[in-house]
């Protein structure tokens, strides 16, 4: 048994698929969700149907108290923590920088950056051998947008993911001698519901021809990469930013 894993934003998309695959790999799973309890419960049910153990825990990663409560719930209800996937993230409707409001920036940056920092902080406090932990892994979900910039769509989202790249590298070096490996996966355009939040549910089909492989990615392809990075097969990999983007 591999201990427990916290996956933020795990009620849908990449997070949901990662949760199911993590359970198949032997983890007890915390399925974190923001508001859609029914969707989170369905992920838990899918895990339990295959003999795994999972709990759904509501929590907004933009709220520190919610993060603390989530990790305390894992401490009391699941095996000792051994992994974290910082998957929760938001974007807003397509717009140019000249039109982006202060409130929008606060929402995007607090969820995408601050939430990942605070979740990682709580994970390190439990995983680090310097704190009596057994070590473990952290995978941050970044985006190819951090390299591409997402002009005329969501430069704020791209910038938040650029911060995640820097955070991944810095934290990896900070805890490298404490039994913790920290890496990031940078998906390209993937068939998930997040594009609807940007106001264009069909965005993947619109832009896929710009991808060298001429197709969008599937959530399973991202989840498989996350689980590989957390596995012993990636034991000498830390501080890496792994593009899973069809060559773009």
TrEMBL record:
The record ties this protein, via InterPro entries, to:
NAD(P)-bd_dom_sf, Sc_DH/Rdtase_CS, SDR_fam
Protein keywords: Oxidoreductase
State if Oxidoreductase is listed as a keyword. Answer: yes
The answer to whether keyword Oxidoreductase applies is: yes
One Pfam entry for this protein is: adh_short_C2
> Family assignment?
Belongs to the short-chain dehydrogenases/reductases (SDR) family.
Q: Report what the protein is called.
A: Short-chain dehydrogenase
Which organism's genome codes for this protein?
Sneathiella chinensis
